[in-house]
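Quick review question:
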């Protein structure tokens, strides 16, 4: 795979597909994390002497229709502020031209018909905007769309941007050549959304530590009564299979020994701690308990690599966030290389102010899940197919 860092692009037009899909409220950016993550690549292109055209989607507009609400104008303004230059927005492909040393943002790529279904004609037009196409949008690399997979295949020269490269490198350190012991900490609401992840990881890890609604299904598969908890009866057999597989390959799969329960998932609920064998029939498990935190602390103590996906409790609602926070603190203090991937897990870690204590925080929820499932992301496959 060609890397942008290695290319000479002086005097050329570089088109960079980034993930500038920031959350907005009333035309204002509420979190500019993705813009900050994208800026180093823009600076790199400018330092190399190129002119830069930036491409991204924003929100979910009706495809093919301009809608001010989903315009990238506020994003371009924020990028301009950061770079100390005027960054105009091009409404259409014809207007998207740029001189070396300058930056132009193409309007929301979802205003262009054919983006979502990866129309080859649109992909070819996007690819023809510049001399080099830089795929740097890790957060959309799992979608084969016109400006991701499509344009990569059609561009005169296509390469991976530095953000995409760091993401792939971080996950390769977990999935391809991990320092062992390798421990996966998998939480979140449902086994069904993580089945592929569990199946792929169980074959690779030395230990699988589970929490959240996922742990409930594993507990239920062991015949434990989980009361009114969120769990998936349809997936008990799958959970059993995963536990058997773990056993047969000597992979430890510790389960919670105590849990925090309440009658409802709502803030300010009366919560109590119970041994897993004593969950009240009318209450639901909403977090791991303090003994489980200590158990998991010991299970994680000797890890050399950890991948964390999914909070171990309903952390957004107090008082059900203690387990997730404790694990974040344990991992922040760990000497292991810790990769955190998954929208909610990442926002939990960031909320605790511990993001910079982790080895790598992924910028892409869906894309990181697909990597953990062992899939090759379509845009990455396209880059690999290019010479
Ligand atoms: P990620 O985005 O990190 O991949 P998921 O989307 O799979 O994680 O799961 C996150 C959600 O799981 C959170 O909204 C959290 O409240 C919920 N959750 C975790 N544990 C439980 C539980 N025991 N009961 C209900 N919901 C839970
Ligand atoms: Mg999520």
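Suggested answer, residue by residue:
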């Amino acid at each position: 795979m060609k890397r942008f860092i290695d290319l000479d692009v002086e005097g050329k037009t570089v088109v960079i597909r980034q993930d500038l899909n920031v959350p907005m409220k009333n035309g204002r950016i509420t979190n500019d994390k993705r813009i900050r993550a994208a800026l180093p690549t823009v600076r790199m292109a400018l330092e190399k002497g190129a002119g830069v055209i930036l491409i991204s989607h924003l929100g979910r507009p009706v495809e093919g229709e301009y809608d001010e609400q989903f315009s990238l104008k506020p994003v371009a303004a924020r990028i301009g502020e950061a770079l100390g230059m005027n960054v105009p927005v091009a409404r259409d492909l014809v207007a998207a031209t740029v001189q070396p040393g300058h930056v132009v943002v193409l309007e929301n790529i979802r205003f262009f018909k054919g983006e979502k279904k990866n129309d080859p004609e649109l992909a070819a037009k996007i690819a023809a905007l510049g001399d080099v196409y830089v795929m740097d949008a890790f957060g959309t690399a799992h979608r084969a769309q016109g400006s991701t997979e499509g344009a990569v295949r059609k561009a005169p020269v296509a390469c991976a941007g530095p953000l995409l490269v760091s993401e792939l490198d971080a996950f390769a350190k977990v999935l391809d050549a991990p320092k062992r012991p390798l421990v996966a900490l998998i939480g979140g609401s449902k086994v069904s959304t993580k089945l592929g992840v569990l199946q792929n990881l169980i074959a690779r890890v030395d230990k699988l530590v589970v929490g959240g609604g996922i742990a409930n299904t594993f507990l239920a598969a062991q015949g434990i009564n989980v009361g009114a908890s969120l769990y998936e009866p349809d997936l008990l057999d799958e959970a059993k299979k995963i536990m058997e597989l773990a056993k047969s390959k000597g992979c430890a799969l510790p389960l919670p020994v105590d849990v925090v329960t309440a009658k409802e998932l709502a803030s300010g609920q009366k919560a109590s701690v119970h041994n897993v064998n004593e969950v009240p029939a009318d209450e639901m498990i909403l977090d791991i308990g303090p003994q489980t935190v200590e158990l998991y602390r010991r299970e994680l103590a000797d890890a050399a690599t950890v991948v964390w996906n999914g909070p171990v409790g309903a952390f957004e609602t107090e008082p059900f966030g203690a387990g997730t926070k404790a694990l974040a603190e344990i991992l922040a203090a760990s000497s292991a290389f810790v990769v955190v991937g998954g929208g909610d897990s990442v926002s939990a870690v960031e909320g605790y102010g511990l993001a910079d204590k982790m080895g790598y925080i992924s910028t892409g929820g869906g894309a990181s899940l697909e990597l953990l499932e062992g899939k090759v992301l379509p845009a990455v496959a396209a880059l690999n197919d290019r010479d």
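Why it works: The pocket of adenosine-5'-diphosphate (ligand 1) is lined by residues 187-189, 193, 212-213, 230, 285-286, 309-311, 313-316, 342-345, 365 (CB under 6 Å). The first helix runs from residue 33 to 47.
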